[in-house]
Amino acid sequence: MRIDLHTLSSVSDGTESPAALMATARAAGLDVVALTDHDTTAGWGLAEAARPPGLTVVPGMEMSCRWFPTDGRRPVSVHLLAYLFDPAHRGLAAERIRLRDERVGRAERIVAALVSGGHPLSWEEILAAREGGVVGRPHVARALVDVGAVESVDHAFATLLHPTSPYYVAKADTDVLQGIALVRAAGGVPVFAHGLATKRGRVVGDEAIAAMAGAGLLGLEVDHPDHRDDERAHLRGVAADLGLFTTGSSDYHGMNKETTIGACLTAPDQFELLLAAGTGAAPYRD
Ligand code: AMP
Ligand code: ZN
Ligand code: FE
Known about the structure:
With 286 residues, this protein is α/β, with parallel strands linked by helices. It has helices at residues 18-27, 44-50, 90-116, 123-129, 137-146, 153-158, 176-185, 206-215, 229-242, 268-277, and strands spanning 3-7, 32-35, 56-67, 76-83, 174-175, 189-193, 219-223, 245-248. The protein is built from ten helices and eight strands. Fe (iii) ion (FE) binds at residues 62, 79, 193-194.
């Protein structure tokens, strides 16, 4: 069984439509793929309609969250994967809308700062180029490549769009403890995405993960292209201590990232634990 539980389509900041992504998943020999676009369920129906026979599709999303350190330090950006939740749950649906609005305002501020810094970007063109209702730094990164400001999307993330860049603007994301509670209230399964990906910026400590587990977190994404071996080993230990299941996934974004689909995989027994915990929606399968 080849199981990849973290992929994004063009309804957020991936480059393939949900239908194309399903075909990519099948062509790569996956048996199970989860669609986890940022802060939206807009791709669910499209993925279900395009599902090739034999492929199981797990509807999900990646929710933009923040951890607030108890010692008053600045909040840390964290991503919460949520699977099999009820898309009609009022509280969670309202939070998705708030997060998407927040993304638009924040991206506009990043672009304005870059323009003031001499990079000739067009906010209107960036908005027009995106296919879904979600805007993210990958859209800005593409535009920076197009105007020749950077050589690649990856280079943009390492420089102009990195959290340490003067052009970076944070989003007012959901308090992760609240996010976890909302996902559980909607019958969903919350999993902490790429929790130790230090190359992306600051990460949380073990006390944060313990607090998340206390709030209802059920799993940790351990195998991820942005995790080094020592980071994976540490997370595996934390999961064992807290009684969380573990997943492995690619975080595939089509052409917007160098990662290939299926680059990391989830063990079937861990997937069964995830499936058993989700009551808000059913996977799409034969
Ligand atoms: P945002 O949510 O707007 O802050 O943008 C973060 C998104 O960019 C996430 O989906 C990441 O997976 C993606 N991302 C992070 N690092 C890179 C990179 N080096 N190249 C392409 N995409 C990246
Ligand atoms: Zn993304
Ligand atoms: Fe993420």
